[in-house]
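Let's practice the habit of predicting before peeking. Look at the sequence and jot down your guess about where helices and strands might fall. Then scroll down.
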Amino acid sequence: MKILPVDKVRRADAYTLKNEPILSIDLMERAASKCYKWIKKHTDSSQRVVVFCGPGNNGGDGLAISRMLIEKGYRVIVHILQFTDRKSDDFVINLIRLRDIESTEINDITENDKLPDINGDDLVVDAIFGSGLSKPIHGFLTKVIDHINHSGAITVAIDTPSGLFSDENSTDGAGAVIEADYTLSFQFPKLAFMFPENDRYVGEWHILPIGLMDDYVESVETNHFYTDGPACFSFLRKRNTYAHKGHFGHALLVSGSYGKMGAAVLAARACLRAGAGLVTAHIPKCGYPVLQTAVPECMVSNDGSEHLFTEVPDLSPYNAIAAGPGLGTDKQTHNAFKLLIQNAGTPMLFDADAINILAENKTWIAFIPPNSIFTPHPKEFERLIGKSSNHFQRNKLQVKFSIRNKVYVILKGRHTCISTPVGRCYFNSTGNPGMATGGSGDVLTGIILGLLAQNYHPFEASLLGVYLHGLAGDMAARRLSQEAMIAGDITDNLGAAFLKLHKTPRVALLFCNPLNHTKFDTHR
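Done guessing? Here is the structure:
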């Protein structure tokens, strides 16, 4: 799914109005109807609904939603914020329609008026600005927004919480922002929804399709995407009936050190569960009995050191290599790691201590094979790439690093972001807070390594691996709770995640080729 900036969403609206064709007031009616149905599904007519409307089209949405709710027996109080004389045409039409309904409660609120009472058990609908805001909110409207935020009522924002910028940072304290419990976004998610500092404003967000024309949506260019099941399903490969283990690759996992062999165990198990034909773990001698006992399906290449990674094995048998989980950062490990990346000759996956070593030796990044994959958590990202004041800025640093070094960066988090060598970003839709547990990243490394071994392109392995990792985590959380799940539970549910993805409805998709900017049809 594409994430479009506000200006391109407006062009999608305009294109639909012209080519469907449809009047703008009717498109607004369609959008408002989607919101009304969502609210009706999640509330009942005994709950009072308090709607705050601005003078633009977002306010027009709020007026139309109010009318639909009133017609179904809801008690709705509409407050129109009078801070300008300018009103959109569709706002005016919907205001006339609303006033035609008997007993409608409509109040005008000006700067000098007392703010209306909001009860803790009310449902507040924020239709003040939506995504149309171009500058921070100050003055009278700040008082209104603070009043809503402190009311204790459940708040539903229409399209975007008022005061939140969709395409740039808005958390520097410059203006007031609605703190919504739910956000109903039209047709597309907003880039702001992907970053953690905006969670307090956006709450739980839902995409409501409003029928913008597919041919425009498919043709419009963007650098931001939201990865869902159909997109990942398009990457899955059907196994040949006569295939054998040699067809599914041989993965090398360089991992483990004294006291950190669990990381190697978790990654190796996940790699096997992801479908690699053969997996070899290169580990220090102290880990030999651990790995042979815990993961008997995995072969072992012993390092010459008892406790550390100090020497590079023969790399010729392997078609995919990952390094980092539990590796440690001893000086001898640094030296061996440098030799590893100089001799790999194929895209590698770098995680955990491999990233930390590169952060201390940044000139070595020049030795890294193109299309390699980095999987940092936020602190590892800071060490390698640098600090930022907000997540919009951090995203720009991530993209710049991917382009400059021709690599994929998988920045782990709520909506794990995958940046590509051509500057695109793919935000993941699966996963939950229960996955914030030791070893979860090691499992992700194993999954992606297993896909690389099967000759999935690094782009496909990154998107598919992150999606499956999160999907398996969601399944584990449903079975065990977010509190009780551990990293191994993600691997235990990986098979169920594959099965669920295989059952994804087959649809025609247009997806961006990460290598040459063209598109290819991924119809299955």
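How did you do? The radius of gyration is 26 Å.
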